[in-house]
Amino acid sequence: MAASPTLRRRRLARQLLRLREEAGLTAKKAAAQAKAASPDRPWFEAKITRIENSKIQRIRDIDIQTLLDVYKVSDADEREAYRRLAREASQTGWWVGYRDVLGSGTYVDLETEASRIRSYQVLYIPGLLQTEAYARALVQGGSVIADRDVDRVVEARMLRQGILHRADAPRLWAVVDEAAFDKMPAAVAEEQIQHLIEIQRPTLRVQVLPHSVGPHAGMDGAFVVLDFERDPSTVYVEHSTSSLFVEDAADVAHYEMVYDHVHAMALSPSDSIRWMERRLESLR
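That's the DUF5753 domain-containing protein sequence above. Prediction below.
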């Protein structure tokens, strides 16, 4: 499985917070002891807090070792495990080369190590399931991305789909509102719908939420729930100029409940395929 530096950074942050609490230290006291142990390094309460909130992207090895000393972690194997985790958290992935079109790349980074992806989309097909022609039509249709960047946005989106072809590909469940099919550009609709039918397998399902269901729990908008083998789930909510990662356990549970509702109201996978086949027939 591809490693996610973002996920490693969040895991390291949680573990360092746990170590500090087990040591009975406040962030202020931990910083003071770190400063006494390593006077040549900048140590202050805010730095401890930023590390524990995974706000510092690269933590130097000397700082990790200082914190392990302060928290009385003496076992050599345990110390090396923390140091290795810090090194992995500082690495970068292929998406770094596309920061001009992907922004921070945090979502793509987390997506690479998800064990399950639960997607609910209202107006378009999830990026992992888009054909190149459909993706290009979406990007160009938005008219807010410079022409010179269109190719790079589409290229990055196609590269993301590589995770679906790995031996350890994440399970993907996508609930897509019928509105997304209504808004498909006519020139690419047939190919895109055919792709959705052909790509399905036991670990990848697309379910249509038809207009006929009426009001439902997901009407506030689209979101994606990312699940991980060893880490807490997170929810991604995208907006036009920003994005939100929901990590609070209660909030994540709320989104999971909403997903369960829309999933239950959507057509079954087999009925969804038949629905898409009828849609294809109408296009032809």
